[in-house]
Design goal:
The complex is a heterodimer. By secondary structure, chain A is α/β, with parallel strands linked by helices. Chain A has 4 domains: about 220 residues, Thiamin diphosphate (ThDP)-binding fold, Pyr/PP domains (Rossmann fold); about 100 residues, 3-Layer(aba) Sandwich (Rossmann fold), CATH 3.40.50.920; about 160 residues, Rossmann fold; about 50 residues, Alpha-Beta Plaits (2-Layer Sandwich). Chain A contains 20 helices and 22 strands. In chain A, strand 2, helix 2 and strand 3 form a beta-alpha-beta unit. Chain B has a 6-stranded mixed beta sheet with strand order 2-3-1-4-5-6, with helices on both faces. The mean pLDDT of chain B is about 95. The chains are: A alpha/beta, B alpha/beta.
Chain lengths: ~575, ~190
């Protein structure tokens, strides 16, 4: 049956048909939908794990018990899961394991654009990379067999363009793969030095065998056309090459990108006059060609930064550009921003007003960094706000008033370890947990603090208050971020006090379906003096027309935060029950 | 062999561009075309500028549309039409909702909302089909139907019968919004 699927849904379908039994993941753009779509199948176990390391270890355990399993994460999530990854290479698998990792060239929704292929090379794990949804489906399905045949996890590498583009997939039926019997095998699975020393040679031998397999595997293909130019490429770049050149050049399309073939590349190179490697981000394939003594052009032509497109390929190789029409009017940018009624806005206003140095974290709330709030001083990675704050406070010696902000899901992911450190190594640090009862940025996934599991069923719920108390924080208070005075008092008191503290800023994300909104507030133009104080909130519902504030009645949800700021009582809300 | 047709759907996060592209994709698949629909999820959805690419033909390779390639730009907001105009083909057409949504630099007073962008594009010889999709959507019963009004307008230019659009809408939107959306489509189509 033919269906139009995004790459991530195609991966889910492929894994499902391939006989997956268990999937455990942490959400991260552009990988999230793989697990969301898998959760729709009731005959397999799916879950959101607290972080990627946990997710990969769950997949490991399920494989050990004989089931086919998978985990999915974004590129930076693989950093978190790198610890199990490298040794999983040594243990190999019982049930097949597919590790799905989605890179984000151009950083549409990421803090860096690292190239995950380095991980495949470093951990000596085979990696396959699809170029559209049909391949996302078929490669995922085949990855389980590859995993079990070579006794290794397999990494499936996606990128934003493949993960989030819909194209046609011809889907099939789920394979009936029985869960294997568990047999204790310490030599393979207990990675203490004596055993691991014996497993490393197995890994090296496996890599040799995989390299042989790569020469003739169904993932790689040569498409001969004109021989003046030969292009070696993989993933989404293949589509750009075909768009520009059709059959006028020859193409070696690599679907298996670790290990890379030798003979196949040499054979291809010998048939063409000019050899060009087109790969986004780093020069993995090009470097491999050079190691084989083959002269290939690559990064001397193409940038290691950002995404490519047919435009890039046509421009770089043919010097060809399309005719365009341009206008002279300068168009102001439209960066993303916090929604009208976002519960993060009130607490950020308070932090900015009190001139707090704020270490930030990863989530929607990173948007508190942009003007006019400009309330964040740093963003590094998941959890770094809490541990970074501790380090900052030690070095700063109290010269600045400081705090950190971290979301509920991010706090569970890797913030709590930093908080344990704050309590244990005793700094006067104030941690603000922005508890909006959901994993927001990635599109509303449940997490251990929400009380629901991936299927929306009631689940055990972490009490943030109890958790903070139990790691040794005595001062834990909860504020409503819609109440500016309450936020102000809490921030003033907790940053002044000489002991570690936690402020939980609690209100659910305004986009959640069960959140009740109020009728919009209005501005009385006779009372408005045009002081722009309400504009300092950066609320998309408030604009300034004819020297007065105006509130958009479609966007406004009646959170009343702006009303609390107005010194002239110009903002009015309807009587509420 | 049929050439690939490229349609860009641009707007502001939250305006319903994703549903429009879903509808279009489903319709084109049903027509037997090779189809690719590409969009970016995540951070840009939070009130930022959003763009979706829809391409169809006998064989479609790239999922994205770059400079000078779009046959149509369907713009949900006036500024966004102007932002992506360089992607338009020389004889391409713009369908523009004349709704204005202030971007953050305008809200905070660092920039003015530019006036006359549609006029400027027309003066350069671009075919700009302007409509007040918000009013038409409200007339149909909900401000949220702006996306379907604009799809109705786009349908005027594509060679697919109206009945097939109707069927695709019925298969895409929830039952209780069917009538509203069919009305919104017709208002855009007949505008």
């Amino acid at each position: 049956m033919k269906k139009l699927l995004i790459g991530n849904e195609a991966v889910a379908r492929g894994l499902y048909e391939g006989g997956i039994n268990v999937v455990s993941s942490y959400p991260g753009t552009p990988s999230t939908e793989i697990t969301e779509f898998l959760s729709k199948y009731d005959d397999i176990h799916s879950e959101w794990a607290p972080n990627e390391k946990v997710a990969m270890e769950v997949a490991f355990g399920a494989s050990l018990a004989g089931a086919r399993s998978a985990c999915a994460m974004k590129h930076v999530g693989l950093n978190v899961a790198a610890d199990p990854l490298f040794t999983l290479s040594y243990t190999g698998v019982t049930g097949g394991i597919v590790i799905c990792v989605a890179d984000d060239p151009a950083m549409h929704s990421s803090q860096n654009e690292q190239d995950s292929r380095h991980y495949a090379i470093a951990s000596k794990i085979p990696m396959v990379e699809p170029s559209d949804s049909q391949e996302s489906y078929s490669f995922s399905k085949a990855a389980f067999e590859l995993s079990e045949r070579f006794d290794t996890p397999v990494i499936l590498r996606m990128c934003t363009r493949v993960a989030h583009s819909q194209s046609i997939v011809d889907i099939g039926e789920r394979a009936d793969i029985p869960i294997k019997e568990y047999v204790k095998n310490g030599a393979k699975y207990i990675m203490m030095p004596g055993n691991a020393k014996l497993r490393h040679p197995v890994v090296e031998k496996r890599t040799e065998e995989l390299a042989k397999y790569a020469e003739n595997c169904p993932f790689n293909k040569i498409e001969m056309g004109g021989t003046d130019i030969g292009i070696i490429t993989s993933g989404t770049c293949y589509q750009y090459v075909k768009e520009v050149f059709g059959d006028t050049v020859s193409v070696l399309k690599l679907g298996m990108i670790n290990p890379l073939p030798e003979k196949l590349i040499k054979e291809f190179a010998s048939k063409v006059t000019r050899l060009i490697v087109i790969e986004e981000l780093d020069s993995i394939i090009e470097t491999h060609c050079r190691s084989l003594g083959i002269e290939a052009e690559g990064k001397s032509l193409f940038s290691p930064i950002g995404e490519y497109s047919q435009e890039t390929v046509a421009d770089v190789i043919l010097g060809k550009k399309n005719e365009t029409v341009n206008i002279n009017t300068k168009i102001p940018g439209r960066p993303p921003m916090m929604c009208a009624g976002c519960p993060h806005r009130g607490i950020y206003y308070s932090l900015a007003k009190n001139k707090i140095t704020v270490l930030g974290d990863i989530g929607c709330y990173t948007l508190g960094a942009v003007p006019p709030l400009s309330a964040i001083d740093s963003t590094l990675c998941m959890g770094a706000s809490v541990s970074g704050l501790h380090g900052f406070n030690i070095a700063d010696g109290g010269k600045h008033k400081t705090a950190c902000v971290i979301g509920d899901s991010t706090f569970i992911h890797s913030g709590v370890t930093g908080l344990i450190n704050i309590a244990y190594n005793a700094t006067n640090s104030t941690v603000v947990i922005l508890d909006n009862s959901i994993t927001g940025m990635t599109g509303h996934q449940q997490n251990p603090t929400t009380g629901y599991n991936i299927k929306g069923e009631p689940a055990s719920k972490v009490s943030l208050e109890d958790l903070c108390h139990s790691v040794g924080i005595k001062r834990v208070r909860v504020v409503d971020p819609y109440n500016i005075a309450e936020c102000d008092t809490a921030i003033k008191e907790e940053t002044a006090i000489d002991e570690p503290s936690v402020i939980i800023s609690r209100r659910p994300c305004i986009l959640l379906k069960n959140v009740k909104t109020h009728s919009p507030v209005t501005v009385d133009p006779d009372k408005c003096r045009g002081c722009r104080k309400c504009m300092s909130l950066g609320c998309p519902a408030i604009s300034f027309k004819n020297k007065k504030a105006v509130i958009d009645h479609v966007l406004c949800v009646g959170c009343d935060v702006c009303k609390q700021l107005c010194s002239f009582g110009a903002i009015e809300s309807e009587e509420r029950k | 062999m049929m050439k690939t047709t490229s349609i860009m759907i641009v707007g502001v996060g939250g305006q319903g561009t994703l549903l429009a592209s879903k509808l279009l994709g489903k319709l084109l698949l049903g027509e037997g075309y090779d189809v690719k629909v590409s969009e970016v999820h995540g951070m840009s959805q939070r009130g930022g500028s959003v763009v979706t690419y829809v391409r169809y033909g006998d064989k479609v390779y790239s999922p994205v549309i770059t400079e000078g390639e779009a046959d149509f730009i369907v713009s949900f907001e006036k500024l966004e039409a102007a932002r992506y105009v360089s992607c338009l083909k020389k004889d391409g057409k713009i369908i523009a909702n004349n709704q204005e949504i202030d971007p953050m630099p305008v809200i905070v007073g660092n920039a003015e909302y530019p006036s006359g962008v549609l006029e400027e594009m027309r003066s350069l010889g671009i075919h700009v089909d302007e409509l007040d999709a918000l009013s038409l959507a409200e007339k149909a019963g909900s401000a949220k139907a702006v996306n379907i009004v604009l799809m109705g307008r786009l349908a005027k230019y594509l060679n697919i019968e109206k009945e097939k659009w109707h069927k695709a809408i019925e298969n895409t939107v929830p039952e209780k919004f069917k009538e509203l959306n069919l009305k919104a489509f017709d208002l855009g189509y007949n505008y």
